[in-house]
Design goal:
Blueprint (H helix, E strand, L loop, with lengths): L27 E7 L8 H8 L2 E2 L1 E7 L10 H5 L4 E5 L1 H4 L18 H5 L15 H8 L2 E7 L1 H9 L5 H7 L7 E5 L3 H5 L1 H13 L3 E3 L3 E4 L5 E5 L3 H12 L2 E2 L1 H6 L2
Parallel strand pairs: 1-3, 1-5, 3-4, 5-6, 6-7
Antiparallel strand pairs: 2-10, 8-9
The structure holds flavin mononucleotide (FMN).
Length: 253
């Protein structure tokens, strides 16, 4: 089995992320998130496509479950336009979070490495709060793929990880696009229909990029597969009016 990502790929930074440091960079800020669906394997392809656009800055938020489907995260940081990766343990030190996925005993290596070091974890009133800073930074949030679990939590208003806290604190004048990806029976379940209806009909700042029909990773065939990654990129390019870099533009004439 190829190596997959781990929370310890990206230790908690020593200095806090502040949106105001990037407010005048003249770039379109895309916050791209992935959740625990096999379709997260498409993230490198999406990033590679976005790397061709000028004045574009991409930051990534990953749920702990999504890491199973991603390459070591330092590989993603090498892709042009990828300016940061933000994980649950950058907001909540392991062992303090109420989210069992962040419990210290499941990931033993990491917090002890940082004990005694200065980190960006909130310490006092006035310190930046990561999920609020990410919301301030982002012109758009794209969650591709969105798992059944995270879909339910979004619609239920849960905010027990970094991604869900960003969604919960979102400025509803800006768009959130989601690309659900799940087993056909999960997609066809009545609770999914109810949740998707809320996003499509009631929460106007959401855009649902609906799944497509194909053979799924689990061997079932039917709807629930994430929309083609290139169609997702095409959607965000059009929505945010991204422009190809000069070299890419020439090649594409
Ligand atoms: C190999 C594997 C593949 C999975 N694929 C999916 C999927 O495509 N869609 C989905 O909704 N859940 C899938 N799951 C289940 C989610 O990973 C699980 O519900 C997890 O709690 C989601 O957490 P998150 O929403 O915080 O990322 C899969 C789990 C495993 C182990």
């Amino acid at each position: 089995m190829p190596p997959h990502a781990s929370p310890s790929d990206i230790p908690t930074p020593q200095t806090a992320f502040k949106a105001s440091s990037y407010a005048s960079d003249g770039k379109t800020h895309i916050l791209l998130a992935a959740t625990g669906s096999v379709a997260s394997i498409k993230i490198p392809l999406i990033l590679s496509a976005l790397s061709k656009y000028s004045n574009t800055s991409v930051r990534l938020v990953f749920t702990t479950s999504s890491l199973l489907f991603l390459p070591p995260l330092t590989e993603l940081l090498k892709i042009p336009n990828v300016d940061g990766i933000h994980l649950d343990h950058h907001e909540w030190p392991r062992g303090l979070s109420s989210n069992p996925a962040n419990a210290k005993e499941t990931i033993p290596s990491d917090i002890s490495e940082q004990e005694g070091q200065e980190t960006s974890i909130w310490a006092k009133i006035g310190d930046p709060i990561l999920h609020i800073e990410l919301r301030r930074w982002a012109d758009i949030l794209m969650i591709a793929p969105l798992s059944a679990n995270s879909l339910a939590k979004v619609v239920g208003g849960f905010s027990d990880n970094l991604l869900l806290s960003v969604v919960r604190a979102w400025d509803t004048n800006r768009p959130i696009a989601v690309a659900p990806a799940m087993n056909t029976l999960m997609w066809d379940h009545p609770v999914t229909k109810t949740q998707v209806r809320v996003l499509e009909e009631e929460w106007k700042w959401f855009r649902v990029l609906r799944p497509v029909e194909k053979m799924l990773a689990c061997g079932d065939s039917g709807s629930g597969a994430m929309k083609e990654w290139s169609a997702i990129v095409a959607w965000v390019v059009e929505e945010m009016k991204l422009k190809l870099g000069e070299e890419e533009g020439v090649e594409n004439v």
